[in-house]
Each structure stands twice: as C-alpha cells, then as structure tokens.
Specification:
single chain, about 675 residues, 7-stranded parallel beta sheet, 19 helices, 28 strands, binds adenosine-5'-diphosphate, binds zinc ion
C-alpha cells in the first residue's frame, strides 16, 4: 500500500521565525526517522532530517508539499542522537532544526544522494587499521589506577576522576577505552583543545593501532570533517577524539565518553546554542546507560558538589606517577619589594635568581602572564590621552613587533601614532605590560638566554604552534613566556620552574567564577613543572602577588583543592550562586543602550508572573560596547533548575513576539548556565 504519509522534518528555519523548526511534508515512502532529506521551504530547497511520523490524525496530505529529495544512501541518524538534540534544544532554548543541522558537518548538505553513496562506498572499502599491528607496550597499572578501573566498570553514575597532573588519568582513559573497544563499542574522548595537546592524540593512536581513530574539531577542513564524521556515523571509527562539538557525533555503538579537563570553560559554546558539552556528555551517557568519565585536577565546583552529594562517583588518583612531588609554591610578596623595584615590577630579584639557576642547569622555566601584546594601553603624559578603541569600551593594545594598536574585541588595527592624537606631544608611552614586553625585558635581564613566547600572536600561521612546541621539547628554549596557552596539557620534560607574573586581577573580578578559574589555571600551571619525577623535588611554582595572604594562594601553596573547593562552595551557598542556584542570562545588543534596555525591561515585565524565579535589572557586561554595538544583560536566577527551565520555556515565545516590537534591537539570546557573568 503506497499511501502518502505525513512526515515532520527538522529544518533550519530563519532564527527566531514564527514558524517552528519541525515542518510537515508529504512523502510516498514511509521513511524512517533520522533520514536526511531535502525539502522545499519558501522558494528554496533546504536540507532536513525526518524527525518523526506525524502523530494522530494526519492533516489532509494534499495540503502538504512533497519532499524534494531523499538521501537514502546515508544510514538514518539514530533515535538516541535525535533525543540528544531534542533535549539540548529544549534545555538551551533553541529550535530543534537549527541545532540538529548546525552540529552536522557543513559539507554533508552539499552532497546529493548519488555522490554521497559513492563517498560512503569508498569509506567502506578503506582498510580498518593495521590488522596485525604489534600490541603496544602499556604500563602496569598502579593500585589507584587499577582500583579506579574496577570502579568504573561497575559504576552506575558519572565518574569524577580527580587526580593531579601526572597522576595517570590518561592511562585510565586509555584502559577504559580499551575495555569499551573489546566489547565492540565506540569511545568518545572530549578535550578542551586538540591543537595544544597533540601528545594525547598520539598516545591514543599509538595504543590502538588496529583501530580507526578520527578527530572532530573546528580546525579540520570541511572535507576532513565530513570524512571523520561519516566514519564515526558508519561505525567504522572506534575512537572519536574531539572538542566540544564532538559531543554531538553520531556514534551507533557508543559505549564510553571521557571528558578530559572537565572544568575547562571551552566546553561551553559561546554563541548560537550555548551548550555545555560536558553536561550534554553526562546526559547522553545516562540516557544510553554507558560510562562517562570526567577527569580533572581541579574539577568545576558544579561537578565537585555533585560528587560530594554522591550523585557522581569520585575516584581519586592522589599521587604522581613515579613518586614525583608537586612543585613547592613560593609566594613573592610584592609589597615588600623596594619602591623602585615595585615601580619597575619586572620580576622580583629572588625569582630572577631562581630562573638564572635553571638556565645554568639547562632546565626550563615557564612565565605566565595573561595579557598578550606589548602593553595594554598607550598613554600621553601631557594631556592624559589613552589609546581607547573608538568602537568599543576597551583600550587598544600596543603591539610593538609590528608597531600597531590593536583592539582585541573588534579587531581594529592601526599604526601607532607618532605623536599624541589629541595634543601633539611626542612622548607617548606604554602603560602596563603584556607578554611581548615581558619577553623583551627578560631578554635584557638574562643576556645569552633563549627567551621565547607562546600566545595567540606568536602562533599565528599554519604549523607555527607545532614548531614552537617542538623547539621547547627539543630544549632550544630556556624561558618561555606566554598566556594561559602555556598551562594547557603540555608535557614539557625539562621544566622545573613555573611563575605567574601578575595573577591578582582575577581575585577581585566582578565575575563570581574568576577565582575558580584562576585557581584551576595556577594548579594546572604548577602541573607543568617537574613532570620528570627525577626533577620534581626541585621544581617550583612562583606567584608574584600584592595579596600574599589571600586564601586562594594559601590553598595553592598546599596544593589543597579540597579545602579551596570547600571554602568556595560555602561562599556560593551563602550567596545563592551555582551550584546552589541555576542561572540564565538574557543578552541584548543594539546601537544604543536605550534600545537594549527597553527590550530587557519589557522582557522582565513578561517574566513577572513566575514563582521562584528572580529576574534582576539589566546591567552591562564587562566590555559593554564592541564594534559600536551596545550590550546589556539581565540575570535570571532560581534555586531550582526545574523552575528555571519551566519559566524559560514559558518566557521564550513571548520574547520572540517582543522582538518584533523592538525594531532597533540587533540581537538577543538566552544563555542557560552561563559561564561568564
Ligand atoms: P595525567 O593524565 O594524570 O597527567 P598520565 O596518564 O599522562 O597522567 O601519566 C603521566 C605519565 O606517567 C605518562 O608519561 C604516563 O605514560 C605514565 N604512566 C601512567 N600510568 C603509569 C603506570 N601505571 N606506570 C608507569 N607509568 C605510567
Ligand atoms: Zn596628549
Ligand atoms: Zn574595538
């Protein structure tokens, strides 16, 4: 019987349009849900995914437009995948079709059925790894690791693997993946940034030579991304290593998810559907009834609180492999330096001496300064002019190498003026210090030393980053200056000194998560020192601070994450902040502050009726104007995640309507569980 059926299809409708994103079409075949199709929308053909057969009495099929094409070569996307999309779209307040299509490889929509079939046939013919590869050497597990693996195999909850850097977490991931693969399952490993940690990818590849491993991240070419995605979707790839977007990989035999450095902010998408890949990984694993492993030396407070409550299983790796100790932490009290040295504020003399000692011993030092460029601002001492950005509420940064003033928010780049643009004074000088200046100052202070720099500027261009990391590994660098890029998972074997040059600002940030991030960054930075157990005993982490008695530094000195987390959680509980409350931000952008504020105030009026949810007045974010666009945001808070979700779901349709009445509004968005406030 070939009766015409009605199918509801997920399509990418224009954002915030009145049409939903599940549209009904007529089809003569009964296509299974998850099938990729093309459908007419207005006067165009657009890609879509069959979401479900329309339930209940179908509307008269004559009214429905027929599908334009069916990509029958591609196996349908599984129910599990569609449920993940449904959940994520509902939770983060986006349209199903928008999210579903946004997370597929862009090239998938360019292929017609014939070309796709050809492509798939080619992939199926490829050999699946080296069939008879020698089994790779793997270390004997220590007691903690062995116990962790047993617990993981039995766990009925998400597992938090809490261990300092070098305690053998990655080895546990490898063994857990090995077990999943042995059961014929696929494993998904999520990492914050792949380019910075090529070693991790290499370790997985070396351990599983007879399995296909693919990576999924934004650095791939569109063709690579399609190829890798297809290999995962077909079940040909057993291992997928990827950044946050890989949480949406279609994996028909998924049996394990690992989230490495689970506290890392880069797991939260910052535009479009602002999802947390870590949280979705937990949801997906729960839904599938498979293991999920969250690893970190400094877990996010959300994860830590769940572990304390017993909702996650905490497994600890308390010691570094090889018995190496954590580096001794030395706080340099900058207020005690002689006045002139304070003015200059380069490096305190004892720190400089410690670096010199390292150079003599042919060991390496890392200096962390979270500000790139030469100086954050240029200043005219005659009239007070500063190098502000005309389009943003921010200073333009002085980059000495190419003598430019650059805005790090809108990108505006200009040659440094010869004289003060306001008064003509020739004597305009940099204020403050960025990585470029620190590198220059160090080179002057340490004649003969090889001082290199690692930040977003120094690593521009293909292959430059790998080359710089290579020089570091080869011992061709004595001192490496850089931004937080330095602290990521590098395994530099000769580093015995790490110093944070000026980390205090985060102690007093208006963002309540800033101290948590600083603590994680410093712990992670400390973990870069003494990776080689034979050198661990003389490894040091130095912190230059004007607030040496701050509790954050006290906890750092004793490497006491637990104490720090307990103190932070007590503060959060008292203040009614996450993880003891759920937050959402409504952001608005317009040419004028008034337009943005009017929209948010009307939005606030719509929200008034919801019990148990507090809507705060609109405030500007830290950088309130970018590229001549004013931004304003409004915090929505509730002690109950469920109440907040209910309120948001009821609020959103009203906001879509409201938007039509605020013509001047450029953009608005809801950010559920925002990371930066
Ligand atoms: P983490 O991921 O916690 O930083 P790794 O798994 O990378 O720790 O382990 C640190 C180092 O110790 C690596 O070089 C790793 O190969 C090695 N290693 C891990 N587990 C063992 C073990 N059980 N025996 C010997 N070496 C190990
Ligand atoms: Zn001037
Ligand atoms: Zn700007």
């Amino acid at each position: 019987m070939t009766e015409t059926a009605a199918l509801s299809v997920a399509v990418e409708t224009p954002r915030y349009s009145a049409v939903g994103s599940l549209l009904d079409y007529a089809c003569e075949q009964s296509l299974p849900p998850g099938t990729m199709v093309r459908v007419p929308l207005g006067r165009r053909d657009v890609p879509g995914i069959v979401w479900q057969r329309t339930a209940g009495a179908p509307p008269a099929p004559v009214e429905l437009r027929p599908l334009a094409a069916v990509l029958s070569a591609l196996p349908p996307l599984a129910a599990e995948w569609r449920e993940l999309i449904d959940f994520a779209a509902a939770y983060y307040q986006r349209a199903v079709g928008e999210l579903a299509l946004a997370v597929l490889p862009p090239d998938l929509r360019k292929l017609d059925d014939i070309r796709l079939a050809r492509r798939l046939a080619r992939l199926q013919r490829e050999p699946a790894g080296e069939a008879r590869a020698a089994s790779p050497a793997r270390p004997e597990l220590n007691e903690e690791q062995a116990a962790a693996l047993v617990a993981i195999a039995r766990a009925d909850r998400p597992v938090l693997l809490h261990g300092v850097t070098g305690s053998g977490k990655t080895e546990v991931y490898l063994r857990a993946a090995e077990a999943a693969l042995a059961h014929g399952k696929q494993a998904l490993v999520l990492v914050p940034e792949i380019n910075l940690t090529p070693q991790l990818e290499a370790r997985f590849a070396a351990r599983f030579p007879s399995h296909v491993m693919v990576s999924l991240h934004s650095g791939l070419t569109p063709a690579q991304r399609l190829r890798h995605w297809l290999l995962a979707h077909l079940g040909r790839a057993d291992l997928v290593l990827g950044t946050r977007l890989a949480v949406f990989a279609s994996m028909p035999r998924l049996g394990l998810i690992v989230v490495d450095e689970e506290h890392d902010p880069s797991f939260k998408q910052q535009e479009g559907a602002r999802y947390s890949a870590r949280d979705l990984a937990v949801w997906r694993a729960h839904r599938l009834g498979i293991a999920v492993l969250l690893g970190s030396a400094t877990p996010s407070l959300e994860t830590w609180q769940r572990a304390l409550e017993g909702r996650y299983l905490r497994l600890a790796l308390a010691r570094r492999i090889g018995g190496g100790v954590m580096p001794a932490v030395r706080l340099v009290d900058m207020t005690r330096l002689p006045r002139d040295a304070q003015q200059e504020r380069v490096l305190a003399p004892p720190l400089l001496a410690a670096i010199r000692e390292r150079i003599e011993r042919r060991e390496q030092s890392l200096l962390l300064l979270n500000r790139r460029g030469y100086a954050p601002v240029l200043h005219c001492s005659a009239c007070g002019w500063k190098s502000g950005c005309p389009h943003c509420s921010a200073w333009r940064v002085f980059h000495k190498a190419d003598r430019t003033l650059r805005c790090h928010h809108c990108g505006l780049t200009e040659r440094v003026p010869r004289a003060c643009p306001d008064c003509g004074n020739l004597d305009i000088a940099p204020l403050g210090r960025g990585t470029e200046k620190l590198q220059e100052q160090l080179a002057a202070l340490l004649p003969g030393a090889r001082v290199a720099r690692l930040d977003a500027d120094s690593t521009r261009g293909a292959g430059v980053l790998q080359q710089q990391l290579g020089a570091m590994h080869a011992g061709e660098v004595d001192v490496l200056v850089g931004t937080q890029m330095l602290a990521k998972g590098h395994d530099f074997r000769r580093v015995t000194l790490v110093a944070a040059v000026n980390p205090d600002a985060a102690l007093f940030s208006s963002d309540f998560r800033a101290p948590e991030r600083l603590f994680a960054l410093l712990m992670q930075a400390a973990g870069r020192a003494g990776r080689d157990a034979s050198q661990a005993a003389r490894s040091e982490m130095w912190v230059q601070t004007w607030h040496p008695r701050h509790p954050l530094y006290a906890a750092l000195t004793t490497h006491d994450y637990d104490a720090y987390a307990a103190a932070q959680l007590a503060e959060r509980r008292a203040a009614g902040l996450p993880p003891f409350a759920s937050l959402a931000l409504l952001r608005a952008e317009a040419r004028t502050v008034d337009v943005a504020r009017d929209f948010l105030q009307d939005a606030s009026g719509l929200a008034a009726a919801h019990d148990g949810v507090t809507v705060y007045p609109p405030v500007p974010p830290q950088v309130s104007k970018v590229a001549d666009v004013e931004r304003l945001q409004m915090l929505v808070e509730s002690p109950s995640r469920v109440a907040l979700q209910r309120m948001l779901a009821a609020w959103l349709p009203g906001l879509h309507e409201l938007r039509a009445r605020h013509k001047g509004l450029l953009r608005w968005a809801v950010d559920v569980d925002p990371l930066a406030i």
